[in-house]
Amino acid sequence: MPKAFSNVVVFVLLVLTITVADTRYLIASNKITALPQKEGQCGYKSVRVIGDALVDGFDYCRPLFKVMAYFRSMGFEFEPKFSLIIASKSNSEQSNSYGTFDAEKDNITIYPIGEKKPWNLIWNEEVYSSIVIHEMVHMAVLDILDKNYDRLPKEWHEFIAYSIQIALLKERLRDEVLSKYNNITAFDNLLNLNPILYNLAASDRFSVMAYKTYQARGGSTFIRNLLLFKFQPPNFLDLFPF
Ligand SMILES: [Zn+2]
Questions:
Q1: 133-148: per-residue pLDDT in tens?
Q2: Both 157 and 204 in a single domain?
């Protein structure tokens, strides 16, 4: 190689090295300066989406925005604060559940879907999104109730989560779910929405019963009245005169 040419090569390599190093520095320093804003996800500083089973290409912020828009339409605003954990293994205690919300830790955990699928549907993003929505509704309700879970009975917490889960499905999928369970009717007497029935009913059937009752009772207005205690769920213990 002629000397002049080799000098040019050395010079070019030197410039490239400096540029690459400089770019690296910029990326690193951008990361550092961007941290305060990037701490959270979905535009909220206390939202994190983590886990070892994140679904590629799935936008985990969309279910959150849907839930927030739904609650906003009822006049409830809340600052989301949670970690959404997409787990690759089911917790043995939760083997029948698609997800859980731990109010103490502000953790929503979504478990892998096994043999059992919601409403016996083929897995798709919309079905998956509805599972995330269900747990986010629990979180929103707890926030509205100042983290005081016991202000509503468990079956009424589930009533709200399932009703909104189905209400927020895309119309075509919602119609598909309802047509699969077209023999299920709303609760005529709300005393029947009680812990015994909740524990006995399969979750798919309970969810459709809940949604049909929600519809028959005024939809989101009914949920709003429940959360503002303008409507009190009947006390199941009143069924027993002793
Ligand atoms: Zn639930």
A1: 999 999 999 999 999 9
A2: yes
